[in-house]
């Protein structure tokens, strides 16, 4: 999934989650330095996320700019719904897991990695076609 497609996916999920106060793209929030990402406001406050993509293994950029072929598998277990006062990384991970997308193979939180730096907050979303999105909290 390309970053633009992922951005639209996250905006749609967040708009439909009752704990979201507001959501918009970084561009709509006036950030022209980061092409893809979102600004999400929940009960915990505002968080800004930059999205960077990695193509599936063996893929090359397509001239038409389209998404690589989607591969579907077993959706992640739904887990708990995002809570209004969750920290932003926990909230976004819960939102993505709760979506039960058949394209998402894994959602890894950076803060829970062994030896993680305290200021290194984000997620790696791995898709069944081996593409990845790196969601970095700004």
Secondary-structure blueprint:
Layout lengths: L2 H13 L6 E4 L11 E6 L2 E10 L33 H11 L5 E6 L12 E6 L4 E6 L1
Antiparallel strand pairs: 1-2, 2-3, 3-6, 4-5, 5-6
- The helix-strand sequence is HEEEHEEE
DSSP summary, beta strand count:
6
**Sheet with the most strands?**
6 strands, antiparallel
Number of domains: 1
Q: Kindly report the average pLDDT value.
A: 92
State which percent range the strand residues make up.
25-35%
The Rg value, from CA coordinates, equals 14 Å
- Which stretches of 5+ consecutive residues score pLDDT under 50? none
Structure report:
The chain has one domain. 28% of the residues are buried. It contains two helices and six strands; from the N terminus they run H-E-E-E-H-E-E-E. The chain is 17% helix and 28% strand. The protein is of the alpha+beta class and 138 residues long. The mean pLDDT is 92. It has a six-stranded antiparallel β-sheet, covered by helices on one side.
Task: Report a brief summary of the structure.
The protein has 138 residues and is α+β, with helices and mostly antiparallel strands.
What descriptors fit this protein?
about 140 residues, alpha+beta, 6-stranded antiparallel sheet, about 15% helix
């Amino acid at each position: 999934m390309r970053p633009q497609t992922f951005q639209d996916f996250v905006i749609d999920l967040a708009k439909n989650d009752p704990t979201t106060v507001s959501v918009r793209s970084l561009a709509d929030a006036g950030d022209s330095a980061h092409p893809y990402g979102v600004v999400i406001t929940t009960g915990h406050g505002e968080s800004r996320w930059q999205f960077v993509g990695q193509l599936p293994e063996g893929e090359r950029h397509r001239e038409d700019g389209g998404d690589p072929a989607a591969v579907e598998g077993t959706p992640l277990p739904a887990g708990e719904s995002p809570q209004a006062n969750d920290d932003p990384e926990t909230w976004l991970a819960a939102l993505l897991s709760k979506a039960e997308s058949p394209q998402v193979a894994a959602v890894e939180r950076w803060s829970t990695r062994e030896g993680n730096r305290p200021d290194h907050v984000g997620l790696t979303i791995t898709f069944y076609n081996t593409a990845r999105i790196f969601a970095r909290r700004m």
